[in-house]
Design brief:
369 residues, alpha+beta, Rossmann fold, OB fold (Dihydrolipoamide Acetyltransferase, E2P), 2 domains, 6-stranded mixed sheet, 8 helices
Length: 369
């Protein structure tokens, strides 16, 4: 397979700059996922790697060779598109074999590759069918099979599951993970779906406005986000954020005021903050604890309770706070209008400064005052 490196890659369309000097390395056999909001440049970056777009400046290097100026056909890559891009008049077999035939491969080699890919993707019974006779999931498997038979250096996926319904997306996610485990290929995958990113990636690249905000293993980004953007983008439901103000800061701890007259004290912040500083607290929905005693950090009212059988999501409001999401295990019999007392465990709190930069993750401190 291949090692890929991007050095200071930029891309502009006229006066509009889309990619702002991206540096990135993708190791052999990695599964790297690009995520970010719409318009962040993730698909453009993938097309630059594929050779479908040329960078305005910067270098794209594969296995030590500069491929920046090479056309897509000479890069040894295979791309799977959101739209499947199958030939409607060709059978499944012909769709997978077409590129190999154009490349002049011997017939027995073509048969061998197509049969192998069809077996891996459970398409053996559909090789004579036309795309119109297939389900969405089967069509996507054909598109993936067409990439597999080329034996590419890198597989590129551009939101390949976005046209499928929820159940099919789950099934195809499992198949892609199994495929990567089986063939061990280098894969770069673009998605806006965070569940796909968290479950498929060996590393996630979080993009915003054409820049890399953070890259790392899925749980690294989930547990230790570099900034507030990553913290609220990674995770579904997203992290709760609470605007706060530093009331006092000394060696004994940092006291933060939030909501309607509430406060809590954090340790480990000596010298980093001063009274009057604006900060943001963050806590994941699964880390908010519902209590019945007087240790609560916050009292809230349930706006909506979602019963999912194995877990319950509570969407709660409290004075001068944005809506809080609480995930509780099991079936919790709470209803709209019920009052709940919430504790924010100090070893689960994140803290961000006024610019959004992370200051602390999972720090320890005393209970709220």
């Amino acid at each position: 397979m291949a090692h890929l490196a991007l050095h200071a890659v930029k891309k502009s369309f006229g006066s509009l700059q889309i990619i702002h000097g991206v540096d990135l390395e993708v190791g052999d056999r990695e599964f790297v996922v690009f995520v970010g909001p719409s318009g962040c440049g993730k698909s453009t970056l993938l097309r630059l790697i594929a050779g479908l777009e040329q960078p305005t400046s910067g270098d794209i290097v594969m296995d030590g060779k500069d491929v920046t100026g090479l056309p897509a056909s000479d890069r040894g890559l295979a791309m799977v598109f959101q739209s499947y891009a199958l030939y409607p008049h060709m059978s499944v077999y012909k769709n997978m074999a077409f590129g190999l035939e154009n490349a002049g491969l011997p017939r027995d080699e073509i048969d061998k590759r197509v049969t192998r890919a069809a077996s891996m993707l459970r398409l053996n019974d559909y090789l004579d069918r036309k795309p119109k006779a297939l389900s969405g999931g089967q069509r996507q498997r054909v598109a993936i099979g067409r990439a597999i038979v080329r034996d590419p250096k890198i597989f590129l996926f551009d939101e390949p599951l976005s046209n499928l319904d929820a159940e099919l997306r789950v099934a195809m996610r499992k198949e892609l993970a199994a495929l990567h485990a089986d063939i061990g290929g280098t894969m770069i995958y673009v998605t806006h779906d965070q569940v796909e990113a968290m479950t498929l990636a060996s590393r996630i690249v979080v993009l915003r406005s054409g820049r890399i905000e953070q890259l790392g293993a899925p749980l690294e980004l989930y547990n230790r986000p570099d900034n507030l953007f990553v913290a609220t983008f990674i995770g579904s439901p997203k992290m709760n954020v609470i605007e706060a103000e530093v009331l006092s800061a000394d060696a004994s701890g940092t006291k933060l005021g939030f909501g309607a007259g509430r406060s809590l004290v954090l340790g480990g912040m000596a010298g980093q903050l001063a009274a009057g500083d604006a900060v943001t607290l963050g806590i994941r929905p699964e880390h908010c604890e519902v209590v019945t005693d007087d240790t609560a950090d916050c009292e809230a009212v349930v706006d909506l309770a979602e019963q999912l059988g194995g877990e319950t999501y509570l969407y709660c409001s409290a004075p001068k706070l944005t809506q809080l999401t609480v995930r509780e295990a099991g079936q919790q019999m709470k209803m709209r209008g019920d009052s709940v007392k919430l504790v924010f465990p100090r070893d689960r709190l994140h803290l961000f400064d006024a610019t959004g930069r992370a200051l602390l993750h999972g720090h320890q401190a005393a209970r709220s005052s």
